[in-house]
Structures are given as C-alpha cells and as structure tokens.
Amino acid sequence: MRRPKDYILLYLKGIGMGGADVIPGVSGGTVAFISGIYEELINSIQSIDVNAFRLLLQFKIADFWKKINANFLITVLAGIVTSLLSLSKLMTYLLEHHPIQIWSFFFGLILVSSPMIMRDIKVWSISSIVSFLAGIVIAYLITVLSPTETPTNLPFIFFCGALAICAMILPGISGAFILLLIGKYEYMINALITFNIPVIFVFVFGCFLGLLGFSRILGWVFTHYRFPALALLSGFMIGSLNKVWPWKEIIAYRMDHAGNQVPAFDQSIWPGQYLAKTGNDPLLFQAILFAALGIFLVVALEKIAALLRTKN
C-alpha cells in the first residue's frame, strides 16, 4: 500500500521522465529505469486490455481501477504531462544558451545508469553479451543518422506518436531524438508551446495505441528473456552517449518548418578541438561538475529508493 509521500515521489519521477522526453538524446525510459519504476510501468500499461475495458463497460470501476494500477499510472502520467507543458520552453532555452552544461549533466546521468542496470544481470550468457554489444552498435548508429524532412499531415503525426512512444519507453533510445530524425521534433515542440490541439490530440492518440502494443512486447521479452533484455537496454544507454556528448561540431544545416536555418548534422569532438574549431570556451570544469551532478543524482535516487523499499 502506497502512502501519500510515495505518490509525491512517483509524481516527481514522472516529471523527470517528461523532462527527459523533451530532450533529443535522453530517454524517459532511462529515467524510469533509474528511478526503479520501469517494470511496474510496463506491466501497468500492459494490463490495459480487453478484460480491463470489459470491467469498465460493466461499470465495475473499482475492479478496473485496481487491474490497471490506475493510481500509479495517473500519478506518473500527471508528472510527465506537467513536465512536457512546463519544461518545453525551459529545455529549449537551456539547450540553446547552456548546451555544454545540460549535455554534460545528462552524459553523467546516463553513464552511471548503464552499470546499475548491468548489476541486475545475474548470469552473463553468450546471448546477453551479444545483446549488450548489439545495443551499443544500434544506439550509436541511430545517433549518427541525419534528420530528414517529412509531411505534417495528421495521419503522419499519428505515426510519429506511435513510433516515438516506443523509443520513449526504451532506456537509451530517445523518443525526442527519433522525432528529430524524422523531422518532427521542432514541429511537436511548437505544437506544445502554441497549444495546437488537433496536432497534440492526434500525436497523443498515436502514442496511446503504440504504447499499448509495444508494452506487451516488452512485457513478454522481460518475462522470457530478462537478462538479455537488460543487457540490450544497458547497451542502448552506452551507445547513446555519443548523442549527449557535450562538445559538437556542426557540419551541416537544414531549414526547419518555419524556414529557419538549424543544425542538421553534427559530430562529437574533444574539448580541445571544440576550442580550435569553434573559438568557444569548452567550459571543461563546468562540464565535469555537471556530469558529476548527474552521477550524484542517479546514485542518490537509487539510495532513496532502496531506503523506501527497506521501510516498506
């Protein structure tokens, strides 16, 4: 039985997931995994099935509520929505004006998360090792792809929602980055900021249906192939570090939907190269400080979660 303070903590974890989902390169699934709610989240979403809707149609509200773990889902979802609506502008501002500090923070956060996941792998079989290496390669290749231009019609927005949500709940693969690759990141951020209700509704509906289907796949994989699945997700995190590396050299530009020139393709470089090629201070000390802050936050969250589990 959860207490009020537990729901406050769940809400804050939802805020963390939403904040991560706004940023290309950082996955809300990573935050869910770090904060210890990932499997409960997948199982709760998976429980929204035909039987659940049958209970609802029979007006057995209490049974329906209990079956889908609604208290948990609504609390986390409230945090995610709060974060998406309130942090979209803030994250856009921070990435524009303080990119090195923000990317360093998430680099540290993701860097320490992968070993924490690997601790749950009790047996390292050949399949787990192959899954781990495949995760690294797949995530890295995704980070070096270049964004493309795509349609803005509602059917395609629905598809974007279904695709992005699958990535959003996979630790290490960013739904926001997938949107960036298919040319819809800025479009959706602008829709959130301007409250473009039709676009938001269709996107969310695509997310909902995609989430229902993909959660069942994830649930089955975790049930039958738990250790290889954890290894794959851990590999995803390590492979995605290329995307959140703080020092980038922009090597190509593109036009966004508003006709503005924005970076299209970049590559990771060393801090010394960053200074030589851009003329900007690499802010190495601040980068190390914010990376350390990300590491500290993950370790602190794990200690708090362990303490709460002990008390319960």
Notes on the structure:
This protein is mainly α. It has one domain. Helix content is 73%, strand content 5%. It contains 15 helices and 2 strands. Strands 1-2 form a two-stranded antiparallel ribbon. Strand 1 and strand 2 form a beta hairpin. Helix 6 packs across helix 7, helix 9 runs parallel beside helix 12 and helix 12 crosses helix 13. The longest helix is centred in the first third of the chain and has 28 residues. It is globular and about 65 Å long. It starts with a helix and ends with a helix.
Key features of this structure:
312 residues, mainly alpha, two-stranded antiparallel sheet, 15 helices, 2 strands, 73% helix
Number of strands: 2
- Considering DSSP H and I runs of 4 or more, what fraction of the residues is helical? over 70%
Sheet with the most strands: spatial strand order = 1-2
Distance between the termini: 9 Å
Which value, in Å, is the CA radius of gyration? 20 Å
Mean pLDDT: 83
| Residue share in β-strands | 5-15%
**So what's the overall shape?**
globular
Query: Structural class from helices and strands?
Result: mainly alpha
Largest sheet: 2 strands, antiparallel
User: How many structural units, i.e. domains?
Assistant: 1
Q: What is the count of helical runs?
A: 15
Low-confidence stretches: none
Q: Output the helix-strand order.
A: HHHHHHHHHHHHHEEHH
List strands and helices in order, with pairings.
Layout: H1 4-22, H2 28-34, H3 38-46, H4 50-57, H5 61-67, H6 70-97, H7 99-118, H8 126-143, H9 154-168, H10 175-181, H11 185-194, H12 197-224, H13 226-240, E1 248-255, E2 261-268, H14 271-278, H15 284-311
Antiparallel strand pairs: 1-2
